[in-house]
Design a protein that fits this description.
heterodimer; A: 120 residues; alpha/beta; Rossmann fold; 5 helices; 5 strands; B: 549 residues; alpha+beta; Four Helix Bundle (Hemerythrin (Met), subunit A); Helix Hairpins; Heat Shock Protein 90; 4 domains; five-stranded mixed β-sheet; 18 helices; 18 strands
Chain lengths: 120, 549
Amino acid sequence: MGKTVMIVDDSLVMRTILRGIMREQGYSVVAEAASGIETMKQLHEHSPDLITLDIILPDVNGLNLLDAILAIRPQSKVVVCSSISQEAVIHKALEHGAHAFLQKPFTPEKVAAALENLER
Amino acid sequence: MDISQYRDLFISESRGHIQAITGLIVRLEDNGYDAGCVDDLFRHAHSLKGMAATMEINAVANLAHRMEDLLSPVRSGECPFSPLIADLLLEGSDTLSGMIDAVENGAAELPEPHDLLQRLSAFDPTAASASGSPDSGRPASSPADGIPPVFSSPLKQPKAGHSFRHSDSFKSVRVRTETLDRLINITGELITTRHRLADVTSGMDAPHLQEPLKQLTVLIRELRDEVFQARMLPFSFVAERFPRLVRDLARAQGKEIALRIKGREIELDRGILEEIAEPLVHILRNAVDHGMETPAERTATGKRAAGEITITVSRDKDHVEIAVADDGRGMSPHLLAEQAVAQGLIGRNEADALTPREKLLLTCLPGFSTAKTISDISGRGVGMDAVKNTVQSLSGSLAIESEPGSGSRIVLRLPVTVSIIPALLVRCGALTVALPVNAVSRTIELKRSDLFDDNGHLAFMLDNATIPLKSLHAAFGQKPSRGTEGLLPVVISEVGGAPVGIMTDALMGQQEIFVKPLGTPLSRLRGITGGAVTGDGSIVFVADLGAIG
């Protein structure tokens, strides 16, 4: 069975694009969430191998959400996503235990590189 | 990767962000500093930037990025949210909006707004904070990590009323508006077909047909309700741009006006909302231009310097009421009537017979304008006839209340949905005419002896009031049936503001009809809003009672 991923991003456009790229990378997308509360709800039902987490969400502090995800799904790998100008936050996320970092804009190459980082 | 396939999605999501950005800026200006608002503003700019960069629409990404940068010192407390920042951000959101329009229109490459980008990056927060008001500044404590603190333990379940916003992104899909229009069309045709089926079978002794027909009726009603529901949008759909409009107009005239909107969550049919947006802009514009005094005038009359305009939306069964109230100088019914007489729009006798409310409605007469001489009493002629026409074509009604010195209130009463409406069918000469039930307040039967001459017009008494009697025949070019000894069936309508009796030949009963627009040249006819096919296959015209009365 292939690997599973959950996509967390408040933008439908970004989720749709990332969904396409992840499928090309051989992942099956088992869940998506647009907010912190949705993420927590979905994680009650799913236990994905990978979670891509947009660090800026409408309802929660992304770092707090990251802590929560790592606490209830310690076996999931978390890739933190953000745009440029948020380097400080990314740095903090990695300190908090995120496994890799993916900078927007998403391209298939960047996603492949981030996934490769994860394997190491 | 072919990203052009995401273009439509990108356009609609971008518009959502830009609209939110504009709304938040105006809110911050109105209500002062609010950390949550600034964070939201930042997040919308940030999301737009990430999305546009992924879509390789760099001009949008760059501008959103600079706007985000401008907000950083505000978030960190280095500078207050000054009017200067608001202006720059609003200019930014307008430019973004234009860019998205260009993307939609297929522009291959967007030009960078160099001048604006330059001004955004040259902005000096320290210089601005010196001129900003101290109370608009951010509190001293602020998170150092650059993202908003929201809740300390994300594992705790949120309490009721918590700031969590549930997203329905997985339970909803985007549907093109044309699809919704087609759905209502098909539903309307289904209703007409069912009426025909019922008509055809009514004379038959076919009990086995009656049961499925009854079932069909129930199902079509359910379908109709669901289709209606799918077409509903909250009032906020059109109201988002009003705060900005009022702000800009007020600023240009040196006035201070706060706009409050109550009931923005109340839903109306998309078609009605689209129709009503422009009239509401007219009303708001009039309120700001003519209704509201300058701060100096207000203070001189003992009012607060800042005026207030309130839009209140409320639902009452099949109707929605939209009231626009201001606390400005108000209008004088007496002076308005004098002006209408001076302009030759009404006669002296006519003017004297009007109630104060009717006098206020004179502002809706085509051609009514308040010349400079009486601008002091606040003329509202600009576009009010267009407002009234739109409201009436939607089978709604318009009322104006005003108190000189303390303000005006304009109330639009509108049906929640259009297209499929219950109608009263009446006979008028050789024609069957449909009258929207919500435009009819009651029906009565009069004896010829009940009628009398009131200044050259036919009238009758009802509840101790003199009601003018109009004829549907004149409007439809039909000959009234003369010489009948019996009673005259009369429909009472208050669509025009005051009750009017409308004479018909016979009342034929109520039916749900599917109103279709008439093509040109029929659509130019006054007094008709559309056409419909009834159960027996005949075509009926839908009367615009406001235009007749």
